[in-house]
Amino acid sequence: GGGSVIQFHDFGIDIQTYTDRGKGNDFPDVNQCPHCSSRRPLHRHGYYQRYALTAEGEYHLWIARYRCQECRKTVSVLPSFLLPYVQYTRSVIWQAVKAWFETPRQGAKTKQVVFPTKEVILFYVRRFLRNLSRLHHAAARRWGIIGPVGNARTERAVWWMQTLEGRGVGSIIQDLWTNERWHPFADQIAS
Description:
By secondary structure, the chain is an alpha+beta fold. Helices cover about 40% and strands about 20% of the residues. It has helices at about 15-20, 90-100, 105-110, 120-130, 130-145, 155-165, 170-180, and strands at about 5-10, 45-55, 55-65, 75-80.
């Protein structure tokens, strides 16, 4: 479809450093267009601002945009500590959802969640659960990982989170996004 394709890049720095460097970050070259597969290097095409939320506060980030000389479509390069179309950083969502799954239900009722809010956590908990079967198929196809089938959904979710952590959450999400235009916290429709 139209719109800008998002690509990940690991800048090798934390969110504070990325924010401080602003437009002076070491932005990568984009040498192939994800839209039309042209191998002419894409031209830099300005920036847009994005917000990111962590427990430490709100960050205003400059995201670099590139334009293909052949098809004229654009590509945005997102630092790998973010998730596409998600306000919170990847680690905030990951840690909160994992803690939610790993907390026994009776304990969860009394647990005071400060950040992100309980509503936000539940939103992404539900998304992760809805995405389990898709994750199951993608992991089998891409990496030959066979996940558990019979168990309760929460147990399966914990198994997947631990397994993905073992392989590196960042690279897993990057791989799924690059090749499937999808990640485990994504909305199902946005494929």
